[in-house]
Amino acid sequence: MDIGKKRRLKRIIRNDGRTVIVPMDHGATLGPISGLVRMQDTIDQLLKGDVDAIIVHRGIAKIVDVQKAGLIVHLSASTNLGPSPDSKVQVCSVEEALRIGADAISVHVNVGAQREDEMLTKLGTVADECDKWSLPLVAMMYPRGPKIPNEYAADAVAHVARLGAELGADIVKTNYTGDIETFRRVVRGCGVPVIIAGGPKIETVREVFEMVHESIEAGGSGLSIGRNVFQYKNPTSITEALAAIVHDGASVEKALQILGAAT
Fold it and tell me: What is the fold, at CATH topology level, of the domain defined by 3-262?
């Protein structure tokens, strides 16, 4: 890895090899949902909680200030209004992301979806461009499609995570498989840092903390969780609690105490 990419990765991943990322790119897919109406206000709360990096689309990246956090510009989009929400298309170039001031870029691939071939082609092309410009690449890799009955199944998740690494990702974001042993297989088989997604809104905060804690125990490198963070009643406190698990090795109970003390 060249020095430029290493320097930029340090704005995303701390010296402990872990990261707390909050993706806020949902506005393209879902519109101005709760937590994403006043973007700067939410980002300010996340910054107070010591978030490591934030993911946004190019337009939002131009109007918000992420201060000391890493800026990851998302290159993929689709909407829930279209006929194929799982088919992501490229909506920003690597050069444009660099001009905006990106520390890294991210690409979303739904493996098994109708246009998997096109998404994989784009991922490979973007990986080439990222190497050219020394920009780290985060690949969001999900097993989703008609042949995939369970997108959290260990074999499927391990496959897509490895696929992301094979095609040039520096960090792979994917689903948590539900237990430490199976997720350990995902991490070991990938070859680059693996971080977990949050998925749909989870019923309780304890479940979120347990998932994150287990993923770290399995060798994961952190998280990229959106709705369960920016839609929480106090984004600062939940970010703080998640950072304690990821960076300080805090237990679930300790994270809950941090959350309780702040609310």
Answer: TIM Barrel (3.20.20)
